[in-house]
Amino acid sequence: MAIAKAERLMNLALCLLGARRPLTKRELRGSIEAYLEAGSDESFNRMFERDKDDLRELGLVIDTVENLEGEPGYLARRDSNRLPPVTLDAAEAAALGLAARVWQQARLAGAASGALHKLRAAGGMPQAEDAASPGRLQPYGALEPRIPAREAAFEPLMLACRDRRPVQFDYRKSNAARPERRSVEPWTLECWRGHWYLAGYDRERRDERVFRLSRITGPVRSRAGAFTAPVPDQVRVRETVERWAGESATATARIRLRRDAGYPLRARASEVRELPDGWDELEIPYGHGLDAWLVEFGPDVVVLEPAELRAGVVDRLRAVAKG
What we know:
Elements: H1 2-18, E1 23-24, H2 25-31, H3 33-36, H4 41-57, E2 63-66, E3 72-75, H5 90-102, H6 109-121, E4 127-129, E5 137-139, H7 154-163, E6 167-171, E7 180-192, E8 195-202, E9 207-212, E10 216-222, H8 234-245, E11 249-258, H9 263-268, E12 271-274, E13 279-287, H10 290-295, E14 301-305, H11 307-322
Antiparallel strand pairs: 1-3, 2-3, 4-5, 6-7, 6-10, 7-8, 8-9, 11-13, 11-14, 12-13
Helix pairs in contact: 1-4, 5-6
């Protein structure tokens, strides 16, 4: 059955590419054997529409033109279906592969994977020699980094950033018991320490804000209208994400960390001192957002100083307990 469909699609593509004028459904049905064998007009119409959509999905540009009688005709112009050779260097190929893996758990995972297969088949993806098998070539990117996008909000926000569309969603701050409605003009999505963040302009607060996607509850709704605030350049947006996520440290903090726990905190520590009671004392960089991050480690972390960081962590834990 798969071979029969592939042959039918090939015959349809050849008919559309070889025609000098648009061909109607009736003419195409009379030219392709599989269509002649269709039991009824309704069966043929369903088959033809599916085949036409499949060819377009594969990249064939099919024009629809009405003839003098007002009947639609179909044509695949050769000049519209001829592309120059696609060649990528190693860095570009790695970037495309990484971008495709962002969609590994989203709706466009199949399309991204298919695009990479087409580039490899066309010779556009550079290859390197396999160290384990000399003489054998393999695509660049033997290391497979994973950038999960599990949050349901990821895809609608990605599209809203691309299309410059305002959005609305319910957002629960780490120190809040209940979510609240936010109206945002989305700028970009950034992945930091395994979590996705949205940077954008909060209309109610009239200022830029960063939202962690895992704290968005319910659906993301698109809103009509244009942006009301200017969109900053990419570098500034990334700096904003890092600052609000806690990357930019301005001081140091001392914490107690249960042994064999909190490895991300240990990786950032400038000093670690082993304690005799199954805990370690760490000195880590302290910046905006550290209190929200420490809360995630629950009973495995105790803040010693500074006092304002300890108070912030306690307030957040109390808010979670009340919720």
